[in-house]
Amino acid sequence: MDAFRQFLAGWLPHWPRKGPLTLDQALPWVVPKVRPRFMYEALSLHTGRPGPEFRPLAGVFAVSLVVDQPEWEADVDAAMLSAWNVDFDRLMQKARSNLLARGGEECFQEIGPGRFRSNWGDNLDGSRMLLPGILRRLRVAGDPVVVLPDRDTLLVVGDQDPAALAWAMEDALESMDGDPRTMNGCPLRLSHFQWEPYRARREHPVCPLLARMETRRLLTEYAHQKALLDRRHGEAGKAITVAPFQLELTPAGETRSFTVWSESMGEAWLPVADRVKLAWVLGGERGRAWVPWAKVQARLSHLLEPVGLFPERYRFRQTPPPGLLESLLS
Predict the structure, then answer these.
(1) For the packed helices 2-9 and 207-236, what is the interaxial angle rounded to 10 degrees?
(2) Do β-strands 144-150 and 108-112 pair in parallel, antiparallel, or remain unpaired?
(3) Percent of residues, the chain, with pLDDT higher than 90
(4) Same domain, 92 and 111
(5) Taking a C-beta distance cutoff of 8 angstroms, is the pair 100, 129 a contact?
(6) Which of 57, 123, 139, 213 would give a disulfide with 61, using CB separation of 3.0 to 4.6 Å?
(7) 82 and 40 in a common domain
(8) How many domains does the chain have?
(9) Are residues 234 and 305 in the same domain?
């Protein structure tokens, strides 16, 4: 739990000590903040209250607004926007302008040909992806690809440079180990001034690195999510089993994810994994089986209900009837 508390402490907002901010006070200091979308989810689960206002950005990232003064910061929530009588998108325009005023491409250090690292170090380095004009001026091969290992690092390479892509992902994986405030590093590609998750063909040399990043993200986020949900359900006296997201090593040396379900769980919330380990009792006989997640979802879709979380879980309310269990094994 120590690592989990560190994780939450690194993301909780730091509020001003004096009274409420006015819009005039906030405007010179408001900037955008890019974070993994799960961070906003975790804050809401932790506090039981709505967190900062945010918008999905691309892939697993989202963007919010923060009043960022030298001595403190305040995340902008719905109540603040209402009090200021301003909408999120309009304020975002001012926030991006303020961010641009803090420096442009000169704040990137060229580590090597086509390899750039941000050096603002102001906890908002990842937010510079919202300034595509700056990134387009960096000398990279192809479309810019960004990797965000932590709040003070934005790595930029080109999608047509396999060696640089591998450098960015390996650098991110190394720096993310042991940092409770870590991002997830999952790369984004700038295509026609729109961000999208970076994808690579199966034979591309960075595919194993992409898989490691995604697996690491899901393992971390589902573990923190489970801890928050278990606490929340326990305080509410709800008998809900939040199933784990776990990893196994295949005989071929590959890492594969799985979760577990048994009829003794009652209502269960399952993460999306490669496989589900099912256990049941039928006619006095105990049965166990490993079933691909896609097959469980296809055959039992009417029994699975999305909970509405990020990353998503599916609510399993009842034991599948015998015929359906048998169909999973066919």
Answers:
(1) 100
(2) unpaired
(3) 64
(4) no
(5) no
(6) 57
(7) yes
(8) 3
(9) yes
* Residue 307: strand, helix, or coil: coil
Residue with tokens 């967190």: 51
Residue 88 included in any domain: yes
Q: Give the mean model confidence (pLDDT) for residues 224-235.
A: 95
**The domain containing residue 170 runs over which residues?**
105-199
The whole-angstrom separation of Cα 246 and Cα 257 is 6
Residue 212 placed within a domain: no
Q: Do residues 73 and 134 share a domain? A: no
User: Are 87 and 144 in the same domain?
Assistant: no
Using alpha carbons, list the distances in angstroms from residue 7 to 28, 35, 42, 227, 310: 30, 14, 10, 12, 17
CB 50 within 8 A of CB 44: yes
Specify whether 129 is located in the same domain as 225: no
In the prediction, which pLDDT does 1 show? 45
138-185 per-position pLDDT tens digit:
999 999 999 999 889 999 999 999 999 999 999 888 877 766 567 888
Same domain, 155 and 229: no
CA atoms of 59 and 213, how far apart (whole Å) = 13
Distance CA 139, CA 123 (A): 24
The Cα 311–Cα 221 span in angstroms is 7
d(CA 244, CA 235): 20
In a domain, 294, yes or no: yes
Q: What single letter denotes the amino acid at residue 300?
A: L
Residue type at position 73: E
Which residue, 103, 160, 108, 152, is CA-closest to 126? 152
Question: Measured between alpha carbons, how far is residue 100 from residues 31, 75, 90, 107 in Å?
Answer: 9, 19, 16, 11
Distance from C-alpha of 195 to C-alpha of 280, rounded to nearest angstrom: 45
Q: H helices of 37-194, where?
A: 37-47, 78-84, 88-100, 132-136, 162-176
Q: Are strands 267-271 and 240-242 parallel, antiparallel or unpaired?
A: parallel
209 in a structural domain: no
Boundary-marking domain end, from 140, 164, 199: 199
Whether residues 194 and 290 share a domain: the answer is: no
How big is the chain, counted in residues?
330
